[in-house]
Amino acid sequence: MKITLANAEAALDEVRRDADKLHSRELREAIAQYIETQREAIKALRKKLH
User: Fold this and answer.
1) pLDDT mean over 12-25
2) Helix (H) or strand (E) holding 5
3) What pLDDT score was predicted for residue 7?
4) Is the pLDDT of residue 48 over 70?
5) Which helix (DSSP H) or strand (DSSP E) does residue 44 occupy?
6) Mean pLDDT of the region 22-41
7) CA 19/CA 24 separation, integer angstroms
8) Calpha distance 16→7 (Å, rounded)
9) What is the count of structural domains for the chain?
10) Does the pLDDT of residue 2 top 80, yes or no?
11) Separation CA 48–CA 27 (nearest Å)
12) Which residues neighbour 22 within 8 Å (Cβ) at sequence distance 6 or greater?
């Protein structure tokens, strides 16, 4: 499971890099907020696993 969570975090980083290339500021902000929500969910899963 740890590898899968690490892969999820890496995917979020990739999405962030791609989102930074978008012209729409509103869309970049919405994606950044979604990414932060997902990072919090990953942290919660890590706590449950340990």
Assistant:
1) 94
2) helix 2-19
3) 93
4) yes
5) helix 25-49
6) 96
7) 9
8) 14
9) 1
10) no
11) 32
12) 28, 31
